[in-house]
């Protein structure tokens, strides 16, 4: 997560959108805060809530607490495989998903499942996850994302794909849902996302959600970025 103070960028360690926002002192209040996703767009007849480990676990706990639906571990993660969305090729990303996640059939079979992940980047990893869940016997799969859609790339140190590769830059929510194969899909709106931050939320960077970059790139940085990104920066 990038924050901006006096036009100076500050980059937090790690890249999980939810885990970067909250520190240990805030964990006690998370179940109530992260329940916004359930209040906005509930899933009728949901049997179980699961996370995409490990990035989705915090939001999953909040969703389950508010909905009253049991939280269970429906996907087991191998911690020997890193983040798949930053891998250089789709073939490697697909292979990485298969190595990284194993579905728990006893949790999923015949169930209407809500699966929570921190974000959707290209959409290809999400589609593989949905396929894993349905192959394990899930009757329905509904995905909930506790962050707004990513519409532009980050140029401040997070190794995200180019803007053209971001699925939310090319498709609306309904189209993304069809692409990844879920029965329903919902993102957390930007205004609700901001409510989860501290009172100093105006100093965070939301460029990947809005396309409005808070700090104009330096000359050295301009040489590394594409024309589309430059057009997204508001004129002074």
Summarize the structure.
Helix content is 36%, strand content 14%. With 236 residues, the chain is α/β, with parallel strands linked by helices.
Observed structural traits:
globular; alpha/beta; disordered N terminus; 236 residues; Rossmann fold; two-stranded antiparallel sheet
Give an overview of the whole structure:
- With 236 residues, the chain is of the alpha/beta class.
- The protein folds into two domains: 1-36, no CATH class; 37-209, Rossmann fold (3-Layer(aba) Sandwich), CATH 3.40.50.
- The protein has helices at 17-21, 30-33, 36-40, 57-67, 90-100, 105-108, 124-135, 167-170, 173-180, 190-195, 207-210, 219-222, 227-232; strands spanning 2-5, 8-11, 48-51, 75-77, 101-103, 112-116, 140-145, 184-187.
- The strands form three sheets. It has a four-stranded parallel β-sheet. A two-stranded antiparallel sheet has the order 1-2. A two-stranded antiparallel sheet has the order 4-5.
- Helix 5 (90-100) packs parallel to helix 7 (124-135).
- The longest helix has 12 residues, at 124-135.
- Mean pLDDT is 76; it is low at 1-9, 11-28 and 83-88.
